[in-house]
Amino acid sequence: MTANHLLRELAPISDAGWQLLDQEARQRLSVALGARKLVDFSGPHGWEYSATNLGRTEQLPLNDGLVVAQRRVLPLVEVRAEFTVSRRELEAYDRGATYTDLDDLDEAALRIASAENVAVLHGWAEAGIRGVTEASPHEPVPRVEDFVDYPKRVAKAVTVLLQAGIGEPFGLALGPGHYNAVMESTERGGYLLSEHLQRILHGPIVWAPGVRGAIVMSLRGGDFLFESGQDLSIGYSHHDADTVQLYLEQSFSFQVATPEAAIHLRGSGEQ
């Protein structure tokens, strides 16, 4: 369902054009939103939804003999990535063109997905979000010189989590550099490195642009909580004779309920 505040009805875009844009955005975002695949997702609760209930209170000074406490909440953060689409390209699509240049939309989708991945997995102090690696009490697993030894590194991370009482299955979020290396590598004997890692994790490996290094996380549920107000949607800003100015927008909050349920694998250059 499209929210009215997105003002899509004011854009010079046909119904078929909107279907094209929405489909392109979904395809790009479903690949790039790696962090969402490893956390619990609640919502979407709507654009008007403003804050996550933390279930806690903060005591205020006594007032005429009364005990006063204020409810604590985590405000949702609104995130927008702007992009433009050529009116000529949209008109060509309506006439049956088989190719439409939507590179600016693709770039905006990657940008906003990366920002979400970073907020969830590394934190966003200005938005009051404490990320997974920030919250984890475990010492990060150091990098390895030979990528063929990567399974030992992941196995060590899994062992640390198991010893902390965290149950499997586990997922592995990989930044682009680590992901490419894992997917392109074979071990001695010709076995795919990715298949070996999945056997250790008993869970998925996800591409998470924006992530530094890699993160092993429990997928048992209840440890990492992503709350969506408005899920990612395309809205209209303005247009001129040549282009339409649009944006991808969402609102969300994130909490770590069990800090012990994840461990960071450092990337190159990290101390």
Automatic annotation (TrEMBL):
**Keyword annotations:** Encapsulin nanocompartment
| Primary localisation category | other
State where the protein is found.
Encapsulin nanocompartment
Which Gene3D superfamilies does the record cross-reference, listed alphabetically?
3.30.2400.30, hypothetical protein PF0899 domain
The keyword Transmembrane belongs to this UniProt entry's keyword annotation: no
Spell out the family assignment given in the record's similarity comment: Belongs to the encapsulin family. Family 1 subfamily.
Q: What is this protein called?
A: Type 1 encapsulin shell protein
- Organism this protein belongs to: Arthrobacter hankyongi
